[in-house]
């Protein structure tokens, strides 16, 4: 490890008044004298008190900075923060999420893993949690195969090379070599970056020993909007690179299209309604199971949460794909 090198810890944020304080305190607590860290909040114009919280913390933390992300998007904000703060002694970037809380050794562990693996990027698993009854149910179901399709960075337990994961540490040389994030992407910019990184020959290493706690959206509407945007972002990535989507990604799309078709056909042939009814029955069974596991009635929200994840994502994907085909 090279103490003279500096790492940029960048937290993109927009109206995160509920989460930015705990997030930054966990990161500030976790800094080590062994590595120089510059913590930067790339704020996209928050109007809810987020900036005031950051400024209060800046008063007692000289290495905490507030950066104005005039483009508002996370991807553009991270690129701009890197351009503004990276210097000859900058080794890499650690991207953090305002919706997450980090263990005390997180930053140092990311640096050590990136250097030990000589990787272009280190990604980490997320262990989901919630701060409402709905959020806790959503957190439980998203870390199951029903919610994540078996994605390695959702509660994964095995380290190794992966195609994509939750971004943590990025080597600055590789970041600059492939042009950073695509600043036009509002969502899925991490997966789009990972695709270009692998195409350029970079290795992405999932370190299952480094974990963070991610706070799920607290309402059904917020979760549905998030997954709608995720679906649109994935469709844009697929179209940009001419990729073939994975089966686990297309299952929600095929399911939503099939249910719509069956609902229409059932007007003329009633047995067709069995497909949508079977899906609803599956959601109900998962909801009851979650309520039993959590020992809370609020666990029943797992069903509606899963419905939002599947169908908002699928609808976003279909919408963006259709929009692209008309251009």
Q: Which class of secondary structure composition applies to the elements?
A: alpha/beta
Unreliable stretches? none
In one word, what is the shape? globular
Average per-residue pLDDT, rounded, comes to: 90
Beta-strand residue fraction: 15-25%
- The Cα radius of gyration reads 21 Å
Major sheet size, sense and barrel closure: 8 strands, mixed
Kindly state the percentage of residues in helix.
Answer: 40-55%
The main sheet orders its strands as 3-2-1-4-9-6-10-8
Spell the H/E element sequence: EHEHEHEEHEEHHEEHHEEHHHH
Q: How many β-strands, per DSSP?
A: 11
Summarize, please:
By secondary structure, the protein is of the alpha/beta class. 49% of the residues lie in helices and 16% in strands.
Please, could you describe this protein's structure?
The chain has 327 residues and is α/β, with parallel strands linked by helices. It is built from 12 helices and 11 strands. It has helices at 20-29, 50-58, 74-85, 106-117, 133-142, 145-148, 172-177, 189-199, 220-241, 247-265, 274-294, 302-326; strands at 6-13, 36-43, 64-68, 90-95, 100-101, 121-124, 126-129, 160-161, 166-171, 204-206, 212-215. An 8-stranded mixed β-sheet has the order 3-2-1-4-9-6-10-8, with helices on both faces. It starts with 5 loop residues before the first strand and ends with a helix.
Topology overview:
Elements: E1 6-13, H1 20-29, E2 36-43, H2 50-58, E3 64-68, H3 74-85, E4 90-95, E5 100-101, H4 106-117, E6 121-124, E7 126-129, H5 133-142, H6 145-148, E8 160-161, E9 166-171, H7 172-177, H8 189-199, E10 204-206, E11 212-215, H9 220-241, H10 247-265, H11 274-294, H12 302-326
Parallel strand pairs: 1-2, 1-4, 2-3, 6-10, 7-11
Antiparallel strand pairs: 4-9, 5-11, 6-9, 8-10
Helix pairs in contact: 1-2, 5-12, 9-12, 10-12, 11-12
